[in-house]
Amino acid sequence: MTPVVFVHGFMGGSRQWQGQADSAAGYEVISLDLPGFGENAHCDALDSIAGYAEWSLDELSTRGVERFNLIGHSMGGMVVQEMVARAPERILRLVLYGTGATGILPGRFETICTSKRRALADGPQATARRIAATWFLERENAAGYEGCAAIAEQCSLPTMLNGLDAMENWSGVERLENIGTRTLVIWGDHDRTYPWCQTEQLWQSIPNANLLVMPECAHAAHLEKPWLFNSVLKDFFSI
After folding, report:
1. pLDDT tens, residue by residue, 73-120
2. How many CB atoms lie within 10 A of CB 48?
3. Are the C-beta atoms of 44 and 19 separated by less than 8 Å?
4. What radius of gyration, in Å, describes the C-alpha atoms of the chain?
5. Which domains, from first to last, does the chain contain?
6. Using CA atoms, how far apart are residues 80 and 13, in angstroms rounded to an integer?
7. CA-to-CA dists, residue 41 to 67, 113, 172, 223, angstroms
């Protein structure tokens, strides 16, 4: 069966997908760590979404993975949109999860400019824990919070600033109507990072896109309601 490639978001990493890897039935899971993040925190981070997309495609080619299903979360959703634009023939199914097509993130819990300023003032560790809390409906009290915060704490200050620059300077709006890959858009109805306007834009602009709204979830819906998230992925990738 076609492997499924997971691309994490800002301050994320491959370990956040362990619940999806453990539940995978009949397909191989490949979880990437973008340069500067997760298990690749020792690498220099890139400062463009296009750069992360090229790196991801090259990394998969190096691993001998030429055809795959693809899921991108948050900033990773921007990266996978770039991957589809560059190599549509390699991607069979696409999932855009908790993401959008506008990098300035209208309606985010705080502006990207504010995140940069606070990261410089507070330092990377405090920033990692503060922002990770916004990903969950129950914030620091959520079961998955500490695990995500630990992954986020691996990011250096330059990685955080580069990631924020990469998002702020990116837009995929003009290419949405050209996405021919079968696509599923997933959104938690209490997402503090990507409001409904971003999700609706993806759903309405990508031809024949399907939509899943996960109730009582924030930005990390795959950790808040993994049973629902995993069952939908299994269904979508088996079609």
Report:
1. 999 999 999 999 999 999 999 999 999 999 999 999 999 999 999 999
2. 15
3. no
4. 16
5. 4-238 (3.40.50.1820)
6. 15
7. 27, 23, 26, 22
